[in-house]
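Per-residue structure
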Amino acid sequence: MPLVSMPTYKDLLWPTLKVLEDKGGSASNEELSECVAKFLELPDNILEALHNDGPLSEVDYRAAWARTHLKMIGAVDNSERGVWTITDAGRRIVSAEEVRQKVQDKRAERRKAKKQRQFSSDDEDVEVEIGWEEKLLTILRGLDPSKFERLCQRLMRESGFTKVEVTGRSGDGGIDCAGVLRVNLLSFRIRFQSKRYSGSVGAAEIRNFQGALQGRADKGLFITTGRFTKDAEREAVRDGAIAIDLIDGAELCRLLKNLKLGVRTETVEEAHVQSEFFEAI
């Protein structure tokens, strides 16, 4: 039966495990988001509700809590590339009630072990995972148009595009660019639209962009610091129209991170003494 209200992170624990199992044991954040929404039959109005000003929807934000808690009980793991995998311990969980109980028991155990830290706020559990994205988007939305324009040009060039040029007007809070992407022996004319939104981009804006692409590009790319509505996502792949790839605020943050543009990652080195080594001497 579909949910008609905003799911809690506890509601998302079991669906996350089931989706990982159904996807062959691993899935990206994007795949998890799409498949968990289908699993729970979440309506568009719930899926499109933003957490604060984004970059995540409230559902995705709570899904991050769920993944954090599943990792805490050893049911899932994740790579640096954001791919989540189900573990043997996760496969042995057979019901929603069981996974909820395991999370509850582990949280109680951690509260007892570290009384000086309160675990009453679930936000703390996902601060590391998404806190940097919110900080980055605040900076991006505060850039003046000329700096945002230069950033988008740099992003395109670092991603492999050539002949990148701005075709729209500067100073309007968004930019329109064109570039060429070469894949092996083939070249594609790509036109980009970038908008610094804190809300959602709707289907009408995608349709307007599609109209501008006719006869001028092989494909479109729409980048926003906000999100896209479900209608916008459907419009972007509508039959008979030039296909448009969509990059929302969360994906934009990941692109900048992967390209090391304004985001630095650090690996913390930990030393573990192996007592068995000395015993074997």
Summary: Confidence is low (pLDDT under 50) at residues 119-123. Residues 96-113 form the longest helix (18 residues).
